[in-house]
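Record 2,3-bisphosphoglycerate-dependent phosphoglycerate mutase, 206 aa.
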Amino acid sequence: MERLLVLARHGQSDWNKKNLFTGWKDPELTELGVEEAQLGGRRLKARGYQFDVAFTSALTRAQHTCRIMLGELGQEGLPTIADAAINERDYGDLAGLNKDDARARWGEEQVFLWRRSYDVQPPGGESLKDTVARVLPYYIREILPRVMRGERVLVAAHGNSLRALMMVLDGMTTEEVSKLELPTGIPFVYRLGEDTRVISKETIDQ
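=>
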């Protein structure tokens, strides 16, 4: 039985391009973001991947990425489940602010803690620890059972919601996950064993 789980961060969004904290705000993909999603889908197609179900967040940039990838695979009508449980981390009061402006206002060290620490919350927002607490139960309840039944699952989501999931899948420490950067539009292919643990992982970046 193939227990296939593919994770992909959405393509570049307009706010990524403008260097803004995005969080639960809902900007669209840029032209580059569309191209990144197309390329990710084509790379999956070139390796023969097909899916039985897709999951995405409640945010437009992830949903658009998911549709583009499925279109490249010729699977436009694939059942797709959208849920806010795998939304990007909520950046609270920082959402919409330029990251360089935030560093000038609060200092490099403070902004780094808000962005990359495991358990420090930005004002009015979520830490990565909070994001793990939101994403992991949804994964266990909704996504993992399908993978374990042999369904081939695509998840198109966000940098921090996927970092939260990868922390668990890859057995990363809080220090290791703080250094994890996920490129936009790049699929990560996991295969799971009978015990739900990862038996292989591949990055589809060429």
